[in-house]
Specification:
With about 350 residues, the chain is mainly β. The protein has one domain: Distorted Sandwich (Beta-galactosidase, Chain A, domain 5). It is about 5% helix and about 45% strand. It contains two helices and 29 strands. The strands form eight sheets. Strands 11-12-13-14-29-23-22-17-20 form a nine-stranded antiparallel sheet, with no helix packed on it. It has a five-stranded antiparallel sheet with strand order 1-2-3-4-5, with no helix packed on it. A five-stranded antiparallel sheet has the order 19-18-21-24-27. A hairpin with a 5-residue loop joins strand 22 and strand 23.
Length: about 350
């Protein structure tokens, strides 16, 4: 295994931005940048053994500075949406940055995806790793407390990408960390993801209303286009006449995962039939956001690839959107002095 560090640019304040290339014992290769902790590329084999890059991204720092979409980035303090960009905690109301109409999305105007994280490579028995640290100061984007965050990416010897999240705070706050990688198992520039076959370990999903804010209802998937308990193509029912699909322009919903809270268990499995690549997602989180790339708008990515609508999908392990305002959802409150811990595993296989 090897870890190589390169400088890929400088921010306006003079700070350098590093890119780390992690190569596992099986030959899988990941490139991760300190800016936003973004996974720039991930090369894994197909059924013939040929490596292919399965993550949408950009070739250089300029792409990440100039584009939206959160491609491959770490998301925080709060992944997904908070209604009205505000929440109450212990009787105090906190006003957050509104960056999605009246709502708060993915940490605000300058969330963790726009931070230049402190980064240190590390060799581990499991494979090469990258340790990223960031201090989110009190009142950043409106959140209370100084939040110290550590994220560790590990590329294991069998080609698995493991992400371990940890955080502590000096004041009670809310935290919901995730990664926003867009996947296309046929290759990052290979066209739509509609033929990918998806399985979700979920019997319910969070119904949404205007602005894609959850209504509070965890709706049964049975008998709906949201039933992926057995394998189905992502595109098989994506354009059905369904109120939830119309609101989101496809899938952009949080699914409740079965199993015990905090237990690392499988949440999703995706097969790309032409290459035979399989992605399994395991997580300790209670939910997974399935997003079918409905708002990709033709941005130009790596090697001149154009990322159009539905050419990438996201499987964001998380707590449900708007949990601070939904008391029936699992809590995202982190108390002062307590430890936040979360793990997600992206395991690659071939069929």
């Amino acid at each position: 295994m090897t870890i190589v560090e390169d400088q890929i640019g400088t921010l306006g304040d003079g700070r350098g931005v590093a890119m780390f290339t992690l190569v596992s014992g099986c030959g899988a290769r990941a490139r991760i940048t300190s800016y936003g902790g973004a996974v720039m590329s991930l090369e894994v084999p197909d059924r013939a053994g040929a490596l292919g890059d399965v993550v949408l991204g950009f070739d250089d720092l300029a792409g990440y500075l100039g584009a939206g979409g959160y491609l491959g980035a770490l998301i925080g303090r709060y992944g997904n949406r908070i209604a009205g960009a505000r929440f109450a905690l212990d009787g105090a109301v906190y006003q957050l940055a509104a960056n999605d109409g009246p709502n708060h999305l993915h940490g605000g105007l300058a969330g963790f995806d726009k931070a230049n994280w402190s980064a240190a490579p590390r060799a581990t028995p499991a494979g090469p790793a990258l340790v990223l640290d960031y201090l989110s100061v009190h009142e950043e984007e409106g959140y209370p407390g100084n939040l110290s965050v550590r994220v560790v990416y590990t590329l294991t010897d069998d080609g698995t990408l493991r992400i371990d999240y940890a955080a502590t705070t000096d004041r009670d706050t809310v935290v919901n960390l995730t990664n926003h990688a867009y996947w296309n198992l046929a290759g990052h520039g290979a066209g739509t993801i509609l033929d990918h076959r998806l399985v979700l370990e979920a019997e319910r999903f969070a119904a949404v209303g205007a602005g894609l804010i959850p209504t509070g209802e965890l709706r049964a998937v049975a008998g709906t286009p949201f039933d992926f308990r057995t394998a189905a193509a992502i595109g098989a029912r994506i354009d059905h006449d369904d109120d939830q699909l119309r609101l989101a322009g496809g899938y952009d919903h949080s699914f409740a995962i079965g199993g015990r809270p905090g237990e690392l268990r499988r949440a999703a499995r995706v097969l790309e039939p032409t290459t035979g690549r399989v992605l399994e997602v395991l997580t300790t989180e209670p939910a997974i956001q399935v997003y079918s790339g409905n708002f990709l708008d033709g941005m130009r990515g790596k090697a001149g690839a154009v990322y159009r609508r539905r050419t990438g999908f996201c499987l964001e392990t998380q707590h449900h959107p708007d949990s601070p305002n939904q008391p029936a959802f699992p809590t995202t409150t982190l108390r002062a002095g307590a430890d936040y811990r979360s793990t997600t595993v992206y395991r690659f296989l071939v069929d």
